[in-house]
Design a protein that fits this description.
This protein has 14 helices and 20 strands. The protein has helices at 18-27, 40-43, 64-77, 127-135, 151-157, 164-167, 195-201, 237-248, 290-297, 316-319, 345-355, 405-419, 440-444, 448-458; strands at residues 3-7, 13-17, 31-33, 57-60, 81-84, 100-103, 110-113, 118-121, 139-140, 174-180, 186-190, 210-217, 219-220, 224-233, 255-263, 278-286, 308-315, 332-340, 364-369, 391-399. β7 (110-113) and β8 form a beta hairpin. Bound molecules: flavin-adenine dinucleotide.
Length: 474
């Protein structure tokens, strides 16, 4: 019988026959795509251009019924399944070779209830989609720093950004979620219903089913906030980073400051002689009163002698897109990440050492600041255990051509190894590459065994295995 060859979970090839696919397509509201179909090439692309995979089938779901049908197809044929939200994950698990890709990117609605200060969000929505709707009511919740990232993957791994010190991680603001389990059933997960699942999806990634809706608590933010960059020459890096480390210890939760070291892009507020040279950037965000924020950040300018700055009041939605040009899709990317409880002298020295050897103009060493409300939650209160991660360092290896792969990946790996002694040993699951299976226990930390129990209950056959995988407890 004619059919489509599709990879199975166990690494074999199965056949899904044409009659079954025809029948499915009569009830499917979205699109069922195969190689050669219009839209297939676009649908298989994700943010990281290093990932080039060809699923046998792409189920572009339009609604929950489509998701249930796609999961049922996968389960009945034991297919290899990838789940795509915003398609940003560096490991590339949103797409698979030869299997079934469940693509949620058409499901983008964001519905805000301004009275209750809550939002219901579909799993294909990006941070930009979310912020646009929530800010129409002067509301927001903590999400990441790049507007094209997916709400779904970010939230399932934990989620943090500029509002995290004040309001916690994205998961700390999650009230409930709807999940299509491996059995193909839609269940609600919140504090009262399926509380074990609700605990697990707050940091356990996509291991437990396909989330089709997220409900978040919102907070009044902006619409105007204080944001911007203060840029220092690289030869002042030691002073800037040391003073930064000390300064953040006593600053209010409303204020967040991240550090970026990179070669300076040709930003108009930087003198031409700095363009293309290494710099240290303090990226500043303050969500309280603007004048108070200006007062609070004044000392930053004494950390060295800035070569330029661009800080001022701006719409929250504009600041949420400020880094988009530097993080546009289509480049080749390889990341490595460490959590630090403190920025020790050794960590600072290793950052300076490797920032002095950037192998491409787009490479960066990013240090995100957490603490505040994120660290006041117990490590076992949600599946995300890294509450001691005050600084999350991300080595953004980023370049344009395959010819540069080896050199750029080697730089990231070498720096990662050199800075390991100063790190907590934990890692943020959303910053891991696919090759880091040896770090999975470190990522889930003390919650690993409990996660394996919940996995056994909701996905005993490990249908959802293309992720930082938690095998079901045996
Ligand atoms: C440029 C850039 C900036 C970033 N900045 C931040 C940041 O500031 N803060 C932060 O916390 N993280 C940040 N991240 C990391 C980000 O959180 C992860 O890449 C996250 O996985 C992206 O989610 P996604 O839906 O876009 O990705 P996808 O690649 O679509 O999904 C990632 C994985 O999540 C699972 N998944 C996705 N959707 C679902 C669903 N609905 N149901 C079940 N499983 C699902 C799947 O296993 C999938 O493989 C950034 C990433 C990039 C590339």
């Amino acid at each position: 019988m004619a059919g489509v060859k599709v990879a199975t979970m166990m690494g074999a090839t199965g056949i899904v026959d044409e009659a079954e696919l025809r029948e499915l397509s009569t009830v499917f509201h979205g699109q069922l795509l195969r190689g050669g179909d219009a839209g297939y090439e676009e649908a298989r692309q994700i943010w990281n251009a290093m990932i080039d995979r060809r699923p046998a089938l792409i189920a572009r779901c339009a609604d929950v019924a489509d998701v249930m049908k796609a999961v049922a197809l996968a389960r009945e044929h034991a297919l290899l399944v990838a789940v795509r939200g915003g398609g940003h994950n560096i490991a590339g698990n949103a797409v698979c070779d030869g299997g079934l890709m469940i693509d949620l990117s058409l499901m983008k609605s964001v519905r805000v209830d301004p009275q209750a200060r809550r939002a219901r969000v579909e799993p294909g929505a990006t941070l930009g989609d979310f912020d646009r709707e929530a800010q129409a009511f002067g509301l927001a919740t903590p999400l990441g720093i790049n507007s094209t990232t997916g709400v779904a993957g970010l939230t399932l791994g934990g989620g943090f950004g500029w509002l995290t010190r004040k309001y916690g991680m994205s998961i700390d603001n999650l009230i409930s979620a709807d999940v299509v389990t491996a059995e193909g059933k839609l269940v609600r997960a919140n504090a009262g219903e399926n509380a074990d699942l609700f605990w697990a999806i707050r940091g356990g990634g996509g291991n437990f089913g396909v989330a089709t809706s997220f409900e978040f608590q919102l907070h009044p933010v902006g619409p105007e906030v204080l944001g911007g960059l203060v840029v220092f020459p690289f030869d002042q890096a030691k002073s800037v980073l040391t003073r930064y480390r000390d300064f953040v210890e006593s600053m209010p939760d409303d204020l967040s400051i991240w550090v970026v070291t990179r070669k300076a892009p040709p930003l108009p507020f930087l003198p031409a002689e700095v363009h293309g040279r290494e710099v240290v950037v303090l990226a500043v965000f303050y969500s309280g009163d603007i004048a108070e924020g200006q007062r609070l950040i004044e000392p930053l300018r004494t950390f060295g002698t800035p070569v330029g700055e661009h800080v001022g009041p701006q719409p929250y939605t504009a600041w949420q897109q400020a880094f988009d040009p530097l993080l546009a899709p289509g480049a080749r990317n390889y990341w490595k990440s460490h959590n630090f409880a403190t920025l020790s002298d050794g960590a600072i020295d290793s950052i300076i050492d490797y920032a002095g050897k950037f192998p491409s103009p787009q490479c960066e060493i990013f240090v995100g600041l957490l603490g505040g409300q994120a660290s006041r939650v117990a490590p076992d209160a949600t599946a995300y255990p890294q509450r001691d991660a005050k600084f999350v360092m991300n080595v953004h290896g980023r370049w344009e051509t395959a010819a540069e792969d080896r050199r750029c990946v080697a730089w990231a790996r070498e720096f990662f190894a050199k800075s390991t002694p100063y790190a907590t040993g934990g890692v943020y699951v959303n910053f891991m590459t696919e090759e880091e299976t040896d770090r999975i226990k470190g990522a889930y930390g003390l919650n690993f065994d409990r996660l394996a129990e919940v996995k056994k209950k909701f996905d005993p056959d490990n249908l959802f295995r293309l992720n930082q995988n938690i095998p079901p407890k045996v």
